[in-house]
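Researcher: Quick one. four chains, 456 residues in total.
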Amino acid sequence: MTAEWVEELGAERASLGRASTAGRVADVLRAHVTQGRLLPGTRLSEEEIGAALGVSRNTLREAFRLLTHERLLTHEFNRGVFVRRLDSDDVRDLYAFRRILECGAIRRGATLGRLTGEPLDDVRRAVETGERAAAAGDWNEVGTANMEFHQALGALADSQRVDEAMSHVLAELRLVFHAMAAPEAFHQPYLEDNRRIFEFVAAGSHEEAVAALLAYFDAAEAQLAAAI
Amino acid sequence: MTAEWVEELGAERASLGRASTAGRVADVLRAHVTQGRLLPGTRLSEEEIGAALGVSRNTLREAFRLLTHERLLTHEFNRGVFVRRLDSDDVRDLYAFRRILECGAIRRGATLGRLTGEPLDDVRRAVETGERAAAAGDWNEVGTANMEFHQALGALADSQRVDEAMSHVLAELRLVFHAMAAPEAFHQPYLEDNRRIFEFVAAGSHEEAVAALLAYFDAAEAQLAAAI
DNA sequence: GCATATTTGTCCGTATGTATA
DNA sequence: CTATACATACGGACAAATATG
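Model:
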């Protein structure tokens, strides 16, 4: 009955030595979820995972609570904890939230005079990393670079809460990617959008950047909604 | 040594009967914090509160964890949990987040054609409730109505995640209000701002509404920063 | 600086209630 | 309907860290 990912989890026991046990358990589980080794809908048994990782149920529940708050897991009362399964409404809501966060971050960055220097360099770096990865055919890296691009856009707002909200939203979206047929190729066509958005920001044309970003959201949301 | 608010907590024991115990404990504690009965910096002893509420330490810790994720409590390793105390950086960050959320919600509402009908009525209702409360001298109600006004602005985006983010941000801000000298009078001068913002939204002049909202944020942020 | 008391961190065992085969 | 599996919640235990005198 024990699934194969439970054994994989067991291999992570060694890294659980230091710091907050619950936090480290959450790190391990988060990696499994965001990398698609734990698929949406999977039930996470307290006893099974606790035994695999060598931690008590109390500690494990602490980790579950962390990930539930990040919306990577869902907690159904008296039934257990499951890897979150997103529906089309979630996709719509996530993109509504992204439109507000990322467009707002660009505008906020503009009024703060922050669309230059280091914050802008982070955006450029993410664009270039993605382009290099695509040239090398490393689709996994393309996806990662795309995430970093949008995280860097959010960082233009210079707000810890915006950064955190962006992290959570992007982590949630990974759940949808893994549910798609061909998740590898999803980000590739948007690389040139990233380049164009970056150029607009760098040129100080932030309203054009916002418009390009909104067009990207429309396309990506439609594609994901169709895949669900 | 036992403080008076612990006895008040004890009076809430009766309401802990059904559903998730930890969730109910969190509800009770959240009400105490947001209503200022538990002031920022107060340490929450596991044993003391557990005894007052009649729940075990494990259950109480789960409730603490919930509220820590909402940023109402802070968890210092090996020292305990405390009612969160916000500094000027927190205020700055909270208002940066609010600027993005609320201005973004108005703009998103505009593109969705949502600045009319029921969503707009909720905004109007909050404005009028605040004005009536001010006329009656009920400053507590003025504060509540002001919160509802901004929550209603966020709701224009038609996004569950935006709604939730607004709730958390406003709950956090209450921590700052309670740390002020005269929290009662804080919201009153902004009632006419609310009215003006509402009129702009209702008239379809959403960019003017955004501008008025940004001016309000500047004023309120400066006032709170000065109070800290 | 040191010794003691208090409090938290973690884990275990168990009784009870709930969902599902 | 019964049986099984599991989550919920409690109470106790001990180590480790902190606060106090």
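Chain A has two domains: 4-83, 88-227.
Researcher: Thanks, that's what I needed.
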